[in-house]
Every structure is written in structure tokens, then in C-alpha cells.
Amino acid sequence: MDISILQFFAGLIFLSLIFLNLTKKNYLAAMVFGIQSFAVMMIFLSSYLETRNLYVLLLVLLTLVIKVILAPMFFIRLIEKHQLSFSVSTYLNMPLTLIVIAMLTFLAHSQRLLPLTNIIPLHQGILAIALSGIFISLFMIINRKEAISQIISILSLENSIVVFAIFAGLEQFPGLQIGIIFDIFVWIIISTIFVTMIYEQFGSNIVTTMNKLKD
Amino acid sequence: MELVFIITLLIITALFSILLRHRALIEGLAVAASFVTLVGAIIIARSVAAVGIYTSSIFFTVDALGAIILLIIGFLCFATTIYSVRYFREESAKQIVGFTRVKQYFVLLNLFVAAMVLATVASSPIFAWIAIEATTLSTAFLISFYHKPSSIEGAWKYLIINSVGLLLGFLGTLLYFTAVGVDGAAGFVSWQTLLANASSLDPEIAKIAFVFVLIGYGTKIGLAPMHTWLPDAHGKAPVPVSALLSGVLLNVALFTLLRFKVVTDASADPSFTAGLLISFGVFSIVISALIMLNATNYKRLIAYSSVENMGVLLIGFGFGGIGVFASTLHLMYNALIKSSLFMMAGIIFLKYSSTKIAKVYGALKVLPVTSILFFVAFLAITGLPPFGVFMTKMLILSSAITAYPYLTSIALLFMTLLFVGFLKHVAAMVFGKKPDDIPVGEVSVWLIAPPMVLLFLALILSFYLPPILSSLVNAVVLHY
Asked: What keywords were assigned to this record (chain A) (predicted)?
């Protein structure tokens, strides 16, 4: 696949992260995560088209089923079940969030992190974008108070790391990549079960309402 | 062969337990599986002691430190399974848990142990990462076992913090692969391959990678300031799970971190990793000592002691040489004594129905044997002679004091403070007038026996190291 198309998908992932940081609606966040995962799947697909390795094709299919279809479906079901369509709880307001995102993007492009973004000099721009994605996902985990948002943030962090690894030429043995995606699948199931448990026990998905551990 | 057998057996036991409808069968199966795990661990450790490395297939290798961790898994898994059987029978008698919960417990326990064994023996760093992530997944429901708001909160905190930490660890792990020039589907990169190619790893990347790995696996180890999940999870999980989390899981994560340290040291200046490990180690001791002074919950108190001991281990491994020797022994003593302490805390909980320190007093009159053992275990873990922890802490600090006099002095000062804080709470629990409404007498011999044996084992190992262990420890010193 042409590098400019891959750059487009990396850019799409970056944009999806900015959107996830700004959106107030859980439903939209779940859909955008699906689009983000679709971009990751397309990057895997390009790897398959190059190598024609059937394990990589399996990985593409697993990404499609688990991250593009099932994960957003789980989140939407949860949102509908507990009527959690809005999630406005963040620690920082929108302007401050944008400033932090800009600073993190700047940090990822800085000379200080050149050893990371220069692993493959040809991909320096994409690697800096992927690294920004990692930082922005981490920020989102901290900034969001709502459980589903935190789950989406962690999965976005994983997506960003995967993209970084692919463009840095650090793709793993396909068998292990399948193991990782299986782990992620189990993680999604467990975390969504926990969201239900939190809602049942605390009557809310805002994690700041959990304050029973103060003893 | 033994490794594949152990892992398969544990997974089959977990799956089979789902189908069983008789509690005694589930319990018996779990005890049998844990016994086989122990026997398998001993056989593998003997093999490593004789040959130096145990290789089962391309996917599994065990080195000297791995063999020691495997032995710890074997012993503690067996002891906690026996303890669990009686413990949950007592809880069932009090109508705290029912059959379904107990069944769920043994299923998850076997999966948890299988994941820990896998993480220890995995020959690839990515494979080890998958297994450590699997330990998080299998224990999340064990921590929320009692389905109370506080336990769900503790489990959620554990799940989120550890998942983020492990993802950062994953990024760090991937960065090490720049040395091997991994190409898509090229091949399976093992720890040995990483080490063999470490000289071609860019030192700057190696340093950044180690920082990510330290934060990632350091979260799982419970190093301050990433420790915040640890007292909550240990405090809310059922006691046998706390014993395994503290005695085994933290060591499994530490083992993985140390393997990365060896690779980093082969690429960058070893003083970089040493400085980081020692700093995190001292900080963990300081934080745990300060918090333990004002602890109100005895399970959390013991959990913070784990943070402290992980800090001590890091100082020793960071300093190297005699520090590694002392830390390897300390790792064994800490695992045995800490699990024993948690198990005795469980007996106290069964009697007093509270984990609040303020509500537990006069335990010596209520539970004489447990209280004496609890007090002895406290003395042992804080480093009083004749227990080996005294010798290991002294060796670690004396080895570090020349190179890092200020940090070592701070560590020593806060270890003393920690002893005072720990003593204050334990004395308040053990001594004094007993509550009128609590009957005198031990709960069950089956609850006392496992922690007593572990404590006794720690005492024996303080004076005598069997030849197998001795050669394993020497091999660890040479490699790490």
C-alpha cells in the first residue's frame, strides 16, 4: 500500500484521538473508536498485502471482529442499557484540553524524543504522530472521569502503540500478535462487566463517585 | 515437558472445575493441581541447578532466577490452596460466600497460577507480557470477589492502573526490538536473542525503553509512586489471593523487569538502571513507612510492607554483586513470610470479623497460636534476627552505602520508622484485654498449618540453603 495512504490512516487515528478528547457523547466516542480501529486494521491489511502471510490476514480479521465490530457494539449496548449517552465529566475544560493536546503533540515532535521518532528516518513524521497519539491517549485516561471513556482511552492507547510499532518496523511474530489481541478481547469483556458492576453499586459511571476505599 | 504438563493441568483444572457440582471435588482437584505444580517446580529447579538453563520448547525457558520464582509459585500455590479450602468453608459457615462463589474462586485461582507460571517461563518478552496481562485479567474478579462497593472499586483501580502500566511496559518492550531489526513476520524473538543483540541497541533508545518498562512493570511490582492500586487490591481481595498477589505476583513482575535490566546494561551504562532502581527503591521505602505509621487496616498494613520490601529488593538488584545475592535471598524470605502474614491476618479476620486495627485487640488471648506466629512473622519481615531478612537487609544496605551514602541513610532511617509504625499496630492488635463478645480458641488447624510451615521454611532457609538453592542463587548473582 502506498505510504501516503498509510499516512492518511495514521492521521485518521490522530484525529480520532483529538475527537475522543473533546466529545461529550459516549455514543459518538464508541463509534469513533470503531473508526480508529478500522484505520489500524487497514494498516495491518497493508502489511498483509506486502507479506501475504496468512497469520497477518488472520490478525486483520481478528482486529475487524474484535476492535471494529464487537468493542463498539459492547460499548453501545452498555450506553443504551444504563442510558449513558452523555459523558461531560472531565477534569479540564475544552480550551485547556486543547492546549494540553497541542503541548503533547509538540513534545512528541521535539528533539528530545528524536531517538524514538527516528527509529526509521523515512517514517519520522508518522512516528511522531503515533507518539503524539500515545501521549494524548494517556492524557485522556487521566482527564476523563467516566468509566466507558477510560476504557476507550486505554484501547486507544493500545491502538496508538500498535501503530507506532508498525511504522517503527517492530511488528511482532504473528502468533504473539494474535495472543495480544486475544488478551485485549478478554480485557474488553472484563472491563465492560466492571462498568455494569460499578453502575449497579454506585448508581453512576463517574469514577469519582467511587470513594469507599478511604479507610 | 514438565512445564507444558503443569500449565495444561492448571488450565484443565480450571475448566473442569466449571463443570463440577461438588465442592469437595473442586477443592480436591485444586489441591492436587497445586501439588503437581509444586512437584513440577522442584523437578525443573533441580534441572536448572544442574544444567544452568531449562528449555522445554522454543516458547519456554527457565533460568536460575526463573527457577527460584517457579519454586516460590509452587510452594505458595500449594500452601494457599490448602488454606483456601478451609478458609472458604469457614466463610461459607458464616454465610459470607456460597458454592457458586467458591467454584468461581477455584477456577480463577488456577488460571491465575497458570498465568504466573507462563509469565515466568516464557522465552519471549512479548509472550511474558501477554501472560502478565493475563494475571491482571484473572485476578480482577478475584479482587472484586465479595462484590461489595469497596471491592469493586479496588478491582477497577487495579484493572485500570495495571492495564495502563502494562501498556507502557509493552511500548518499552517493543523498543528493545529495535536491536534485532524485527521485520514483520520475521520470527520469534527470545530473551536470549535480545541479550545477544543488545550491543547493537542504541543506548538512548535502551534508556527510554527501560524507563517505560520500569514504569510499566514497576506498576505491577507496586513501586511508589505507582503503588496506589496495591493496598486497595490487597486489602479487598480474599486473604489467600492477597497472599499470592504479595508473595508471588509482585516477584513475577520484578523478575521480568530484571531481565530487561540485564539487556539495558549490555547496551547503556549500567549506572543508569542502577540509579533508577535505587531511587525507586528508596522512594518506595519512604512512602510505605510514612503511610504505615497511620494505617488503620491491618491487611493494608501488610500490603504496604510489600511496597517496602519491593523497594529493598530494587536497591539490592540495582547495586549488583553482593546486593544481588542478598536480594535473591530476600525475595524468597519476603515471599514466604508475607504470604504467611496474610494467611494469619485471614484467621484474625475470621475471628474478629473486621480488618480494622482498632477493632482487633487482645488477639493473644483469643487466638494464642495465630497471634504468636503473627508477631514472629512481623519480627521476621521487619528484619529482626535470627530471620534471614535481618542479614539480607544489612547486606543490601552495607553494599550500597559506599556508592550511595545519602540514599542508603534515608532508606535505613525510614526502615527504622517503618519498624516502629508496624510494631505499634501489631502490638495493639496482639496484646491487651480481649473483647468480651469474641470466644477464645483457634479457628482450625488447617488454617494455621500452611502459614506455620511457610514461616518455618523461612526460618530454616535463614540458616541453611539446600545445595540446589545455593547453586541457583550463585547463578543469579553471575547473570543479574
From this structure: Cell membrane, Membrane, Transmembrane, Transmembrane helix
Mutation choice for A interface testing from B111, B137, B163 by most A CBs within 10 A: B163
- Are B34 and B113 in contact by the 8 Å Cβ rule? The answer is yes
Q: What's chain B's Rg over C-alpha atoms?
A: 21
ipTM of model: 0.92
Measured between beta carbons, the chain B residues lying within 8 angstroms of A147 are 156
Beta bridge partners of B60: B57, B122
Dihedral angle computed from the Cα positions of residues A157, A162, A165 and A169, in that order, rounded to the nearest 10 degrees: -160
Residue A44: inside a domain, yes or no? Answer: yes
Spatial separation of the C-alpha atoms in residues A84 and A196, rounded to whole Å: 11
Nearest CA to CA, how far is B368 from chain A (Å)? 28
- Residues of the domain holding B73: 2-479
Torsion angle of C-alpha atoms B13, B18, B20, B25, degrees rounded to 10: 40
Identify whether A212 is part of a domain. Answer: no
Which residues of chain B are within 8 Å of residue A48 when distances are taken between CB atoms?
A: none
Count of structural domains within chain B: 1
Do B133 and A183 count as a contact with CB atoms less than 8 A apart? yes
Q: Do B126 and A173 touch (CB under 8 A)?
A: yes
Domain span at residue A181 reads 3-207
- Dihedral sign (CA B176, B181, B187, B193): negative
Per-residue pLDDT of chain A (215 residues; tens, 9 = 90+): 677 888 899 999 999 999 999 988 888 999 999 999 999 999 989 888 888 888 888 889 999 999 999 999 999 998 888 877 666 688 888 899 999 999 999 999 998 889 999 998 888 999 999 999 999 999 999 998 888 899 999 999 999 999 999 899 887 777 778 888 888 999 999 999 999 999 888 887 777 777 766 65
Indicate left, alpha or beta for B362 from its phi (over 0: left) and psi (-120 to 50: alpha): left
- CA-angle at B137, arms to B174 and A145, nearest 5°: 85
| Residue B447 near residue B347 (C-beta atoms within 8 A) | yes
The rounded distance, in Å, linking the Cα atoms of B227 and B207 is 22
Would you state the cell numbers that stand for residue B448, as one nine-digit string?
494455621
Domain annotation covers residue A214: no
Three-class DSSP category at B480: coil
Task: List, in order, residues 6 or more apart from B10 with CB less than 8 Å away.
Answer: B33, B37, B110, B111, B113, B114, B117
Predicted model pTM? 0.94
Report which DSSP code applies to B339. H
- Cα–Cα separations (whole angstroms), residue B299 to A99, B241, B339: 42, 12, 11
Interface of A with B in 182-211 (CB under 8 A): 183, 186-187, 190-191, 194, 197-198, 201-202, 207, 210-211
User: Smallest Cα–Cα separation from B125: which of B65, B176, B196?
Assistant: B176
- Structural domain count of chain A: 1
* Rounded CA separation B22/A206 (Å): 40
DSSP-derived secondary structure for B415-435: HHHHHHHHHHHHHHHHSSPPP
**How far apart (Å, rounded) are the C-alpha atoms in residues B78 and B73?**
8
